[in-house]
Amino acid sequence: MFPKGNCKYGYIDKSGQIAVEPQFDDAHQFSEGLARIEVNNKSGYIDKNGSVIIKPQFDHARDFKEELAAVKIDDKWGFVDKTGAIVIEPQFDWVDEFSEGLAVVQISDEYGYIDKTGKMVIEPRFYYARNFSENLAAVEILRSIYKSKWAYIDREGHVVIDINSDNAYSFNEGLA
After folding, report:
1. 136: how many CB neighbours lie within 10 A of its CB?
2. Cα 47 from chain centroid?
3. pTM for the structure as a whole
4. Number of domains observed in the structure of the chain
5. What pLDDT digit, counting tens, does each position of 134-145 carry?
């Protein structure tokens, strides 16, 4: 991705040649074969040839992960597939990308997890939640109005590691 003097973005290949002419108001890296672009404050997706695959129509969008991308329409988040079809209706206040088949979703002030069909598999009950990694997810549990603590849950939502910490991050290579 590179900006041109007119503040439009395009893409170059590894030899430095223009692969996609600068034409976008913003452009992001490719993920799963598609790149998120923005035109007139709307987000869409292109392929590596620069062809628009999903026209810019979303208020905001994120990169594709596990074949789905989070999109925001009228202040609610949902998910689309690589054809632009809405797979999970925009209904959430916030979402994160899919990881290990589940995505963090926020409803009001609580976080839970959905599967790729949109089914709520872990009900929103956490003060904050992170993506699953190595079959565990770090979640913040509100203990009282001014006190919270972090724990790790399994894919059923059971606390399997209870820690006394002000923060926790995802496991990577067996460590967190």
Report:
1. 20
2. 19
3. 0.92
4. 2
5. 999 999 998 788
